Amino acid sequence: MMRKAIFEVVGLYVLIAGAWVLLSDQALLWLVKDPDLCLWMQTYKGWGFVLVTAVLLYLVLFDRLKMLEQAHDAGNLITERLQHYLSASPVISYALRIENNQASPIWVSENITGILGYTTEELLQPSWWDDHLHPDDREEAQAKVWSSFFETGTLDHKYRFLCKDGTVIWIQDQIRLVRDEGGTPREAIGVWTNITELKQTEEKLRKRESFIRAVLDNLPIGVAVNSIDPHVVFGYMNDLFPELYRTTKEALTDPDAFWNVVYEDPEFREKMKKQVLDDYASGDPARLYWPDVPITRRGSGTTYITARNITIPGEGLMVSTVWDVTERKRLELERQVIIDKLRKGLTATVQAISAVVEAKDPYTAGHQQRVSDLARTIACEMGLPGDQIEGIRVAGIIHDIGKISVPSEILSKPSKLSLVEFRLIQVHPEAGYEILKDVEFPWPVARAVLQHHERMDGSGYPSGLKGGDILLEARILAVADVVESMASHRPYRPTLGIEAALEEIMKNKGILYDPDVVDACLKLFREKEYQLPSE
Question: Is residue 219 within 8 Å of residue 270, measured between CB atoms?
């Protein structure tokens, strides 16, 4: 820019001078014929040329100097703005001169004083940077500069640095190498960023993570963080997690390993894999619970675990928890064995009681067994729980136990009963209740026996209960008792047949008998071809 301006001035001068010499001399020789006068005029012509060119040079140089001053002012303004921006910046900028792969500082932004406490003059000392590196970081920081910076041309590293007041801060140092056209390193431009707060936050997070890991590693349950779709990839697992699955952390690192390692039996493996993936795909948190899963290993028996997973929204991850339920399962199995033994003993006792009643009333022999079977089958058709069904079966076997208090001649009387005799028969539910009320059945057997002659409209006995006040077990026994009684032979009449019995309960559905029980009974006989056991 400057060279161009100089050439413009010189060129203008040469042009004007050449034109003046050629034109003025020719004009003077043409106008003045006297040699002395011509010589005198040539002298003054020269002074005129000097004066004119001086004025012209002044005007040209003044214009050029004005332009230079404006450019200088603009440059100063840019420099001031740049320095202002650098001073207000949270990062320190600096420049290094590179000679023979040796770096020496040549410039630093003035905000170094506010950040580190040092002046710009102090930084320009040759060994200033090395002297103020934290002793524990000095060797590593210097090694990074000399080992890789001049090869890669860039460097981004972190280290601790001593401030002038003695405090220590963390610096992120980012440098870029500047080469000349021949590829020789000439300068390095870099910035320092104070990352102390970031490092403190990282340290807090590290301590918190260590605390959480310590807690998780000492929990009495297995915990893992993993993806599952369909491969199980673990990001973390505590020590107990693989132990409960009877494997190792190393064995579970392969994305395809979990299903094959944990479940040895191929059929059970595919069953569990399908169930888990289906439950996961459902998006229903309640389905991410798998109780009492057997973990088998050849030659070492079976253990049981229960697992529950918790999804992490938006991350494609879940927290998997698992705990050992082997001891509980063992106790449950032992308890079930004891219960089964007790129930077998109880059943034998109930059968003995039933036999006593039927021995006294040979005409109703098998009645209680058939009522029990029909009542149990109705309960199954209604979808009742297994334990409740068992209670209904037991109650059916002894529902007429109260007849043991009725004279045999009344029970086996071949003709119509008198009113007094019928009243004695009607006492048998209460008599049965009195016999059974102190027996500790796991089901409401005594109440079912007491209420099996109650009716939905309140017309039954002994208490005249209505609708929902009647125990469900008793409502089922009532229908089974009526159907069996009408379909079987009695001392005072021959069998009325199963169709008459079904017609009776259908006609009085919702009046005398529970409609749901009636529907289940009708479905058994008419759709599922149920038959009462042989007498």
Answer: no
Both 509 and 403 in one domain: the answer is: yes
How confident is the model over 489-503, as pLDDT tens digits? 776 677 788 999 999
Cis geometry, peptide bond prior to residue 242 (ω within 30 degrees of 0): no
Kindly state the DSSP code that residue 533 receives in the 8-state scheme.
Answer: P
Q: Where among 197, 231, 259 does a domain terminate?
A: 197
Residues 237 and 184 placed together within one structural domain of the fold: no
Cα–Cα distance, 134 to 138 (Å, whole number): 6
How do 317-324 and 222-228 pair as beta strands?
antiparallel
Structure tokens at 203: 């340290």
Long-range pairs for 166-174: beta carbons < 8 A, 24 or more residues apart: 168/134, 169/116, 169/194, 169/196, 170/194, 170/195, 170/196, 170/198, 170/199, 171/195, 173/141
Give me the residue label for tokens 């890669």: 152
Q: Are residues 188 and 219 in the same domain?
A: no
Q: Is 462 helix (H, G, I), strand (E, B) or coil?
A: coil
Contacting residues for 410 by C-beta, under 8 A, at least 6 apart: 417, 421, 424, 425
Shared-domain flag, residues 261 and 364: no
Q: What does residue 223 show for φ and ψ, rounded to 5 degrees?
A: -135, 135
Q: Dump pLDDT digits (tens) for 414-465.
A: 677 777 777 877 888 999 899 888 888 889 999 999 999 999 999 999 999 9
Q: Is the dihedral of CA 511, 512, 514, 517 positive or negative?
A: negative
Element (H, E) at 265: none
Place of tokens 């208090």: 405
Q: Residue 462 and residue 447: Cα distance in Å, rounded?
A: 12
- 462 in Cβ contact with 334 (< 8 Å): no
| Structural domain of 112 | 89-197
Structural domain ending residue among the three candidates 197, 224, 245:
197
Query: What are the pLDDT digits (tens) for 11-40?
Result: 666 666 666 666 666 666 666 666 666 666
pTM over 0.85: no
